[in-house]
Amino acid sequence: MALETQRFQGSEQSGDDNILPKGAILQNRYEIIKVLGVGGMGAVYLTQDLRFTGVKRFCAIKEMISTTPDPHVRRLAVESFKREANLLVELRHPGIPQIYDFFTDNVRSYLAMEFVDGEDLENVLENTEGMLKEEVVLNWAVQVCDVLIYLHSQDPPIIFRDLKPSNIMLRKDSNKLALIDFGIAKAFEAGQKGTMIGTEGYSPPEQYKGVAEPRGDVYALGATLHHLLTKRDPRLEPPFTFHEEPPQLLNPALTEQTSAVIMKALEYDPEARYCSAQ
Prior knowledge:
The structure is a single chain. 27% of the residues lie in helices and 21% in strands. The chain is of the alpha+beta class. Helix 3 packs antiparallel against helix 4 (214-230). The longest helix is centred in the first third of the chain and has 19 residues, at 71-89.
């Protein structure tokens, strides 16, 4: 289950009564420093791990609050959160935050993970005057492909299902990326349909039918690159129309090759796209 968050740039707290205050301590271990983001299912906090003395070890704590009165729905929500923890704890890739801990406290579940100090690519794009440089975005694209190749090579393959600029973090003082919010990533089961989860504009057409497979992540990467290189937000456009507007038409500085690669990734028919991130 995804925790869609509105990321905070400072240390200000929300007026939401569910938000834990600065200085609160979870599990006698994690001291809350500030809120990193807040959404409908809970919040994400920056915390300090108090078990380490003489050195400051920061963690991001992702929270899910289950307030539904229906015990069945509440159990399913917690099980979904546990799946995320079990999924992430086994992954080892520099582009995927490490998981340190998982615990529950009454109606709240928590996931303690590596704190990625940086800025998501949506913020980077919004704070950039003019267009981002093609070579910079292509470097990011290669890094994302490397993470997707790793995920899709798992047995069974893991489909991210919600690739978009706001779920890609650029680490501070480096040009290295990390994919965040694996809440809706799932192990791929061929032929099995599920519910539509993702973000309108970035999600491929087949995902609206509950189909999730590696080429869906390829489509989402194509939409992400289109957005980063043209500043045309797919969430504000009619669904699946990016294939009608080659990026080069919106950003003449782009090379024809890059424009063509993005267009192939955005093909409506999955069979017409690249068969893999490789």
